[in-house]
Amino acid sequence: MSDLTDLELLYELSETAEREVDRHLRQAVDWHPHDYVPWSRGRDFAALGGEDFQENDSALSPVARAALVMNLLTEDNLPSYHREIAENFTLDGAWGYWVHRWTAEEARHSIVLRDYLTVTRGVDPVELEDLRMTQMQHGFAPGMNSMLLSVSYVTFQELATRISHRNTAAVCDDPVADRMLARVAADENLHMLFYRNILGAAIEVAPAQALAAIHAVLTNFQMPGAALPHFRRDAVLMAKSGIYDLRQHRDAVVVPVLRHWGLLERTDLSGEAARMRDLIGDFVDELDVRAAKFEAARDRALERDARRRERVAG
C-alpha cells in the first residue's frame, strides 16, 4: 500500500480536527495579558525622562532571567511557526480555523512575557530587543516538510514548553510571575492535546507513516530556540537548575505521550509500523541511559560548586 499524501491525510483526519477544535473551544479560557502584569512596578526609561536599565534593577536570579528570556524569544518566532503549520496543514475548514486560533492564542504569550519583563525591569530591554531581532530574522525552519512531521514535532514541543514555563515559575520567586506562567502553561497543555489527539488518529489511519514521523522527530528533537545566541549556555544553566533537562524530556514529555497512545505495548502492528514501534522503544531506552549519565555529571558538578562555596565562605 502506497503512502497517503498530505491532502489525503488531512481529508481522512478532518472529522478528528473538527472534534478537537470543538473540544478546545469548550476548554479554552479567554484571558487578557494586561491582567497578569504588575503595572504599578513600572517607571519611565531615559527616552521619556526616566532612567535606563541597570543590572541591580532586576530582582530575578540569573537562571530565572535566562529561562524567561529563552521562553519569550521562543514565543517571538510565532510568524515562522504560523507559516510552517499553515503550509503543512491547510487553511480550509477546521484545519484553517485551528491554525488561526492557535496563532492568536500563542501571540498572548509573547505579549504577556515581554510586558512583565519590561515593567519589572527583569532584564535589559535593549538586549532583549536585539535578541528578538536576531531570533525573528533567523526564523524557524525545522525541516518538518510534511503534515505528519509537523504535527509530531508540535505534539512533543508544546508539552516541553508547558513544562519549561511551569518550572521557570518555580525559580522566579514572584507570585505574579507564577500566576502568569501558570496561565501560559495551561494554554500550551491544551495545544498539546489537540496535536496529540490528531497524531493519535493518524496512527490509526497510516500507522507506518505516522510512526516513521514520530521516530524522526524524537531522534532529531530540538527546541525552537536552539539557534539563539548563548542557547547552549542557557540551556545548560536551565538543565542544572531543574527547569528542563534530558530526564524531564524523557519522563515528562516523551514517555507520557507514547503511553497515552499505548504505542510501545501495541501488538497489532506489523511490517514497517512494527519496526518503527521497536525503534521508538529503543530510543526511549537510550534516552534513559543518557539522562542517567547527565544526572550523574550534574550531581558531581553541583557537589564541586558546593565545596568551592564552602572554601570561599571559610
TrEMBL record:
It holds the Pfam family FA_desaturase_2. Binds 2 iron ions per subunit. Fe cation 1 binds at E75, E106, H109, E188. This is Acyl-[acyl-carrier-protein] desaturase. Homodimer. CDD domains: Acyl_ACP_Desat. GO terms for cellular component: cytosol. GO terms for biological process: fatty acid biosynthetic process. Belongs to the fatty acid desaturase type 2 family. It comes from Tsukamurella tyrosinosolvens. The lineage of its organism: Bacteria, Bacillati, Actinomycetota, Actinomycetes, Mycobacteriales. The keyword Metal-binding applies. Fe cation 2 binds at E106, E158, E188, H191. Its cofactor is Fe cation; Fe(2+). It comes from the Bacteria.
